[in-house]
Specification:
By secondary structure, the chain is an all-alpha fold. The protein has 56 helices and 3 strands. The chain is 70% helix and 1% strand. This is ADP ribosylation factor guanine nucleotide exchange factor 1.
Amino acid sequence: MYEGKKTKNMFLTRALEKILADKEVKKAHHSQLRKACEVALEEIKEESEKLSTLPPIKSKTNFIEADKYFLPFELACQSKCPRIVITSLDCLQKLIAYGHLTGSAPDSTAPGKKLIDRIIETICACFQGPQTDEGVQLQIIKALLTAVTSQHIEIHEGTVLQAVRTCYNIYLASKNLINQTTAKATLTQMLNVIFARMENQAVRSNALETLNHLIDEEAPNYEEKAQEIVQSILQEVVNTVAGGETCFIHSFKQCGSILSEIINLESGATAGQPPGAKFSHILQKDAFLVFRSLCKLSMKPLSDGPPDPKSHELRSKVLSLQLLLSILQNAGPIFKTNEMFINAIKQYLCVALSKNGVSSVPEVFELSLSIFLTLLSHFKTHLKMQIEVFFKEIFLYILETSTSSYDHKWMVIQTLTRICADAQSVVDIYVNYDCDLNAANIFERLVNDLSKIAQGRGGHELGTTPQQELTLRKKGLECLVSILKCMVEWSKDQYVNPNSQTSLGQEKPSEQDSSETKATESINRYGSINSLDSTASSGIGSYSTQMSGTDNPEQFEVLKQQKEIIEQGIDLFNKKPKRGIQYLQEQGMLGTTPEDLAQFLHQEERLDSVKKNKMLFFSLQVGCNPNEDVAIFAVDSLRQLSMKFLEKGELANFRFQKDFLRPFEHIMKKNRSPTIRDMVVRCIAQMVNSQAANIRSGWKNIFSVFHLAASDQDESIVELAFQTTGHIVTNVFEKHFAATIDSFQDAVKCLSEFACNASFPDTSMEAIRLIRHCAKYVSERPQVNVDYTSDDMNVAPEDRVWVRGWFPILFELSCIINRCKLDVRTRGLTVMFEVMKTYGHTFEKHWWQDLFRIVFRIFDNMKLPEQQTEKAEWMTTTCNHALYAICDVFTQYFESLNGLLLDDILAQLYWCVQQDNEQLARSGTNCLENVVILNGEKFSAETWDKTCNCMLDIFKTTIPHALLTWRPAGAEGDSASGVFEDGSRSRTSTSESAIFHEYSSLPVSFLINLFPDDHFLSCPAEIQEQRLFSALLIKCVVQLELIQTIDNIVFFPATSKKEDAENFAAAQRDAGCAADVQVETQDQGMFRYLTLEQLFKLLDCLLESHRFAKAFNSNNEQRTLLWKAGFKGKSKPNLLKQETSSLACGLRILFRMYTDESRQGAWEEVQRRLLNVCSEAVAYFLALTSESHREAWTNLLLLFLTKVLKISDERFKAHASRYYPLLCEIMQFDLIPELRAVLRKFYLRIGLVFNITESSASS
């Protein structure tokens, strides 16, 4: 114990002193490292003094470990100073090697981990890539090798992987050849230790189990038995090595440790408990993780272009293959037999071989062949199918094609020569493939290919020299001769064997009869009699070719004959299906029941799919038979057959389930019998509930059947189909979404059909909810759509989630909106925009374009209902709802959508205000206002131009010019005609007049809805007039709404209203307050973002609207005509609000520009316009004859006078000079007190500004 502590202290002291002596440590940023070293040295010194003074204490415990001194070395490794790092790593390596540093205590910085994990992580972190110091690299390799191979510490799982990965990366990144070679050798040694420990542990575990059993039986003799067990195990290991089954020899020292465990068993020393169900020990998991990682590394693709031998990709691939080959060649019994490792070989290594076995790099290809040979030698009993694929897709393919290189062909033939040199391997290939009813004829193809090569008839690649061709021919012939020798050698053994001799002769007829009986029983390959099911065997050793007294070679002759019959039958089937089936049944290779036929069609992959589809069972016709009993029998037979198919499952890239489930779909389409339709739905529901995990391509048919059921009027059919569909969406999708992705669109379409069945509104609402639920799957699992390629090869990977996921959901919701009644379509509309708002942040820009093409279909006139009542409801509800929702989405994703969809949205808003629907027209202007107010700050100059132009277009197209031109029906005897100023008339036919007369007692509103829009010019005159009046009224509404919209946009909502209220309140108070009115929210509007040109355009529209309203309000005769014709209710129509609000908004804009310092250049033009507009307005007021008309101008005059009073004296002079005569005339009217008060202030200021009065007098 003393010597151990002294050694430890010596290592620690020297390393710490060396670190402290380094000049780099004296720098300020290494103060923490310096302090940690000093503290550690002090503690070591105290410990050394105790060792020298205290007497030795006998104890079974080991000496004190160096774990508590790890901190200074950790800091040293993080110092990035090569000298300090090398010193630290060297000390750590020595401490681990001598068992002074075990790291067995928990790591205080990482719960659940041990200190050794942190130690290894620290060592690995010293490697920082190619720039890492070469000395540091070498020390890392030494330290990690010591850690992995040490008997004193335990590292597992991720820590082992990290150690291996670091050495792997050093090999790839290091520029030093010595370091590369050392790293590679270290990796090989690490892997040997990792896999050897796993094998040793299994040997120890088996020995302990056996000893436990013996102790229970013969307790007194357990020591003697233990010695015998160990000796037998050692002998078995040596014999195994000698036999070539494993290349790792258990050392006597390690086996001695088994004996010590057995001896200590009585005192309670036991083996570790297995950590999980998959692995019996953690060491197995370590080995598995390393093996899997190497397989994955070997699968990484090389970069395009000619391979660079120095590239990291190629060197990594070669190294990983070399290490895998080493593992396989040294594989022990556990690795060869444990299910987890066998599955890893199938799942990872065989996939890696399939990729690297076609590599154009000779070294990679050669390593792949070597690995395959090793698999063939050690693992063939588990890899029958994989070996078949490797022969077909690599060996034989290279030999048969002219595009393969000479080097590749040469290496393949060399490998085949090695395989064919072993008689057992040759016979195994023939028996397990050529005599297997479902396998390819590997032996036959191999012999044919070698014969062609030997004769010079093989595929010759370009550039092969005559000498190379001759070499290939010789090698091919040599390989053929080797096969013949093997066959002679193997058959010679059979004839020497006396038991086989008698079985082949005629001396024992009973055995021959027995073999014939067996052969007869095995004939029905796809029948229900006892069949020799070679597909059930999983390995190339399925048939024993080590002929003993019980083996019968004639059995394989029978199988080969059966296979030839089946192949001939398949050829016939692919030409004429019925003839092929008849032939196989006549030969006894196919049973006659539907189950036999189903098994044949399902299992036999060599059948032509088109011909196979034609065979699907008499069920299509019989299932549609009008006789229900016959149809029920057909559907039930089809159900049983389909269940057998589904129980087998379906391999990837196969679509056979679609074929055998298609009859259900056909019956559902053609048979209208509720009984049969109900039965079909129940059959499909049963399949879903019992076989969901096995269904792949069949989901499309299932959803097609439910889609057909969704439109049914039978409640039980719809309910069962919907319940099952809901189960699929909520449960099956959750567990097997990747397997159902191919039919996801069909599922959403099916739900859409349920939603559109008007007979079951509750189902409709629930179906929409499930569509919303589907959006969650698309959002949470986008990679499933990206990875799925199938028929989407022309779709970019980044767009697959849109094409296969989002677009079907949103499209089907739009179909629900366009097809369903109000409550259902409203819910569909809500959900559609919920999906956009919730998941739109994941959408690409071009996806939005596709999406809004769907959305704008809601407003498509061609798709709107023909009946006016339905059309009006549609516009008032759905179009109105959609309009606001579109603007919300546009605002939420403005940055993405502005450049893409602004034009479309403005066009849609323009469309809305053109419709003969007051609510929709109001909504159009309100939405325009919302879009601009919420996003105007982010508008570009171009966007503002487009927006202003949209408002101008709406203004121009909604001015109700016909109000001034309309005339009542003429007196020429044509009572059913309306006349306009241009002389045009609207006429009706005699038959239409008769219709109008017949319905004359009905309300005009009903008659308006009786005639659709496209018959407007031919409907009765009264209806024409009412429609015209309705349209004119809507235009008046739009004008008012648009005036308010412009006011709200420029000055912010409610600002102007507040200003009017304050002006009026100020006029009511003392005159001194009137000129001090301030509006705090003035700058919240978009005024500052609008250019002069844009403001003037808006101003022109406002004034044009004002002038039109003045013209109409002044035309008393025209108003009377319209009133008598029934336009706008009980009083004469007027446009007073339009007249005043348009001018008020125009004045606000002009006065705002007049005081804007940033627009001084336009002040002259603004003043000119102000003078003209205000003079014209006051003159118009003076001309008014109606008291109510003058009252409507009160707020406008207050606004005008208040604004003028606020301007500077210089400006006031110009304005007062222009308005003074007009305002004097106003005094003759009976004005309200508030207006008189403001006028008083105006006149007083005139006296002051023009020096008529003194300042004191005016105050």
